Amino acid sequence: MAGNDWVNSYLEAILDVGQPLDDARPSLLLRERGRFTPSRYFVEEVITGYDETDLHKSWTKAVATRSTQERNTRLENMCWRIWNLARQKKQHEEKEAQRLTKRRLERERGRREITDAMSEEFSEGEKGDIVSDVSTHGIKSRLARINSAESMEIWANQQKGNKLYLVLISLHGLIRGENMELGRDSDTGGQVKYVVELARALGSMPGVYRVDLLTRQVSSPDVDYSYGEPTEMLTPRDSEDLSDEMGESSGAYIVRIPFGPKDKYIPKELLWPHIAEFVDGAMSHIIQMSNVLGEQVVGGGSGKPIWPSAIHGHYADAGDAAALLSGALNVPMILTGHSLGRDKLEQLLKQGRLSKEEINSTYKIMRRIEGEELSLDVSEMVITSTRQEIDEQWRLYDGFDPILERKLRARIKRNVSCYGRFMPRMVKIPPGMEFNHIVPHDGDMEDADGNEEHPTSRDPPIWAEIMRFFSNSRKPMILALARPDPKKNITTLVKAFGECRPLRELANLALIMGNRDGIDEMSSTSSSVLLSVLKLVDKYDLYGQVAYPKHHKQSDVPDIYRLAAKSKGVFINPAFIEPFGLTLIEAAAYGLPMVATKNGGPVDIHRILDNGLLVDPHDQQSLSEALLKLVADKHLWAKCRQNGLKNIHQFSWPEHCKTYLSRITSFKPRHPQWQSDDDDDDGDNSEPESPGDSFRDISLNLRFSFDGGSGNDGSMNQEVSSSMDRNSKIEAAVLNWSKGKDSRRKMGSSLEKSEVNSGKFPAVRRRKFIFVIALDFYGEKDTLAATRRILEAVEKERADGSVGFILSTSLKISEITSFLESGGLSPNDFDAFICNSGSDLYYKSLSSEDGPFVVDFYYHSHVEYRWGGEGLRKTLIRWASSVNEKRSGDDDDEQIVTLAEHLSTDYCYTFAVKKPAAVPPVRELRKLLRIQALRCHVVYSQNGTRINVIPVLASRIQALRYLFVRWGIDLAKMVVFVGESGDTDYEGLLGGIHKSVVLEGVSCSASNALHTNRSYPLTDVISLESNNDNVVHAPLDSDVRDALKKLDLLND
């Protein structure tokens, strides 16, 4: 193998080659100039775009091998690895081209279909409902920009009468108000600082009464005890921010909700199965706090809650949780993505190191993307830091199309109906900073030995820690503040510094790369970057010119900026792509000019501050030239410094919060509808003062009869028209309890006896335990047998009234009646019925004279948000027609998918499926509807023979959460009976704080086909750990009571 020493040239090229040349200067021209080398060309054209760290390590080991034969064998193996990388790159490029082409065609087809759909009955559309379309999108009028101090003061005075309650959610990382451990791990970074400072700033704004930042409670020996404290108050930075009208519970707080492993700190990728548990805990806190604030702010014992004005999710995991909370509480939602999953997936695929399956396994990327898509479905507003985030990152999602957004917005401005189509409002609001405490330094290093604010005091300790690296500490300091991550491009910065002799003579380089104890204890990626930096320092002999301290505190960061400014230095951010660049704003506030990447947020920052230079991060020479220009030209340095200080106020937290709050107050108010009719009575036995209002609400839904028939069912309409007296009795029965004041009870408390006997509330409220039967069988006999077995297991508790039952199914209420009668069961065996996959909710009637069921009309108003109505129905019919045309086979008359008019209701469009295998997967239908800006929840049920399309915020698990919000039913005392599989909404029934009994052997025959539609494994949705105390498995033929005893619910 002695003949393969030529490999060394390739490996040397991998180590020494620069970034790819511009397309305008192909390598062919290098041959003409006499500078062409095959190895350089090979690396530039084949290997570029991959992380060669592993190849470098392998090469280092190979050349250090003493045995010539072994060394050559290793080098030959590396040749094959290089060839494999080239092959992977080519395959990826081909797949990427196909994917982009497919996506472009889907988008274009979707836009055409939307245009055609919205063009139908255009004359009628021109008369579209102005209030409905505009308010749903949350747009009342164009907001005036606040530019002057006078207008800001006017705005502040206008807000003082408001008493807003805001909820922020950030789940991963370690969050506390002081001494944040930024850089401790990849989850505790800039987002942690952002959400804490945002909460603190909002809590100090006029018109805001309380801000809760909800995060995870971590009680682990691996982290500080402070992360296990349930509540932490965020003290305003400036005492002047404290309002004279502060109340007992006002201000900003970090509220830590326990969920997930109780004694373990886990990375964000492992939090996904526990999101539902957080949602239930957060919902309990928000309801409790809303009632407390109602007593404090409204007073008078009215008990009317103050619901959150908005729930703001940060990152995909918190966005997913915020969407579920928004639906459960019926309040507006806001989303800030921070870092987006689709963009990260594309970047990782381009590297070619991991396959899509490996990426998904490592980063749970598909679950993350689905969380972001759901957040887009629900959000009133999406806050971004830059325009680039909108145009290049959010546009990758099915649920957002910039072109379609502009079309819908134009129709809204012209007062034209959008036919049930909705698009979240993308709003660019740059993150803020608090500048009041910052005093930029105006002197030189020679001016004083002490701190500029305290001339007689000693220098901050971090100064000595950095300065000890420099042989000449008087030179200007180039400062880079970033964790050792390949994306941050620190190695290119060190190369640029090392290869530019004039720059080395004029300046020092300080690299603040997080905190570390030992390189071996760092992650493989971080240690690899750090080792590369150290090798480059040695290669260019930069000792005495480059600082790389091991430790610094978060409180040291301002002092580091001051040191760089005092030395007349420059701040640099050389990242390949920077989503925003908060450190650039921080540096500008201390008087530091900047050199930053031209990719991402720094472009917008530079447009406002005009305090430095933008460079191509791939161009090493461009980096060194920009740094040298600022360091050498004192007039340019002074001009950039002055521009930054002059314009920095536009990035202040007050400016950010004013824009933020102005947007929130433009939302259409949303809150639980029954609260709007609660009266100021102080007892549950009082009757509503204005029952006429309640009758008007119910009259809007007279289409619904006992069996929930919609306007699509003619026979049901006849029944309504011929039975008005009977329906009037139902309305009266509904009024007896559905308008009753919902005084919140503490978890586990029971109703007073007078309430139990008053008949004002549905029976489901007075039970000690609620058993939910949610078995998704295909055959009626199996379902009836399992249901009867569960009922018989708790016959004793049923008799004394301590246990109540809810039937949760994809069936319509009329089908449930037939189903129960066929098995000899009575509707009176159940307190409530969740029907049509969660789009309808019925209770057992209070009087046998009024029929068996009473519909909860408020539930419809609770879940109807963004319901597409007739526009959605027409789109689904067109989709069904296209499926029938493509997959009907030889029998042209056979309809594979048809709209089942007799099974549909106002909030559920049901389609019958004859050949489930011939119907596209649920994710494909969901994608199609999202591309067309239709927001809904698609459920394949009944063994794949039925498709229910319901409101996006409706589901069977959300109906259970509604019962908690509406009636105060303790979720921890609910038991949900499910099979081993079921409908495509099956996984939602297993997560949360309720108990679950999984009956083994209960499943639908097509369950595998239905659930392979999911683009991520079930373990990314629910926790299947053996130590999960809330879930027990029991064979169908075993004693169900034994399973309940394992859950500590029943005793003999």
Structure, described:
Helix content is about 45%, strand content about 10%. The strands form 4 sheets. An 8-stranded mixed sheet has the order 3-4-2-1-5-6-7-8, sandwiched between helices. The longest helix is centred in the first third of the chain and has 52 residues, at about 70-120. Mean pLDDT is about 80; it is low at about 1-5, about 15-50, about 120-150, about 450-455 and about 675-760. The chain is globular, with a radius of gyration of 32 Å.
Topology readout:
Layout lengths: L6 H10 L10 H6 L5 H10 L5 H11 L4 H52 L2 H4 L4 H7 L12 H11 L4 E6 L20 H14 L4 E9 L14 E4 L16 E7 L17 H24 L11 E5 H15 L3 E4 L4 H11 L4 H8 L1 H14 L2 E4 L2 H7 L8 H12 L11 E4 L32 H7 L9 E5 L8 H10 L1 H6 L1 E5 L11 H16 L6 E2 L9 H10 L3 E4 L8 H8 L4 E4 L4 H8 L2 E4 L4 H13 L1 H14 L5 H12 L26 H9 L14 H9 L1 H15 L14 H6 L10 E5 L6 H14 L1 H6 L2 E6 L4 H10 L9 E4 L4 E5 L8 E3 L1 H7 L5 H19 L9 E3 L9 E5 L8 H10 L4 E6 L4 E6 L4 H12 L6 E6 L15 E6 L6 H5 L19 E5 L4 H7 L6
Parallel strand pairs: 1-2, 1-5, 2-4, 5-6, 6-7, 7-8, 9-10, 9-12, 10-11, 12-13, 13-14, 15-16, 15-24, 16-17, 24-25, 25-26
Antiparallel strand pairs: 3-4, 17-18, 18-19, 20-21, 21-23, 22-23
Helix pairs in contact: 1-3, 4-5, 10-11, 11-14, 11-37, 12-14, 13-14, 18-20, 18-24
Pfam family, one: GT-B_Sucrose_synth
Protein name: Sucrose-phosphate synthase
InterPro entries: Glyco_trans_1, HAD_sf, SPP-like_dom, SPS, SPS_C, SPS_pln, Sucrose_synth_GT-B1
